[in-house]
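re: ur msg from earlier - yeah i can do the iron/sulfur cluster complex, just paste it... oh wait u already did. ok heres what im feeding in:
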Amino acid sequence: MSKNWYPIINEENCIECGACFNKCSHGVYKLEGTKPVVVYNEGCVQGCRGCQSLCPAEAIQYAGDTGEKKAGGCGCGGCC
Ligand code: SF4
Ligand code: SF4
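and the outut:
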């Protein structure tokens, strides 16, 4: 199975604040101690930037990101 939009964490930049984990209501992240780990790529909503927009360390990029902003939001139903 492939999924063309999901977060990738730059562990060197991450300060383990937990904001991404706390933000996402789709089960994409889990915490290992204080470290966020992407465990459910398929749950990420195409075009959503909810966790990236909250990350204070600019540690989140997306697989499949071409830099385009989706008009009218991502359609996630309010998570971002
Ligand atoms: S982009 Fe949105 S759906 Fe995907 S992990 Fe972040 S908050 Fe969750
Ligand atoms: S929001 Fe950014 S800095 Fe905070 S835990 Fe997530 S990736 Fe790390």
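cool cool. The pocket of iron/sulfur cluster (ligand 1) is lined by residues 7, 23-24, 26, 28, 44-45, 48-51, 76, 79-80 (CB under 6 Å). ping me if u need the other ligands too
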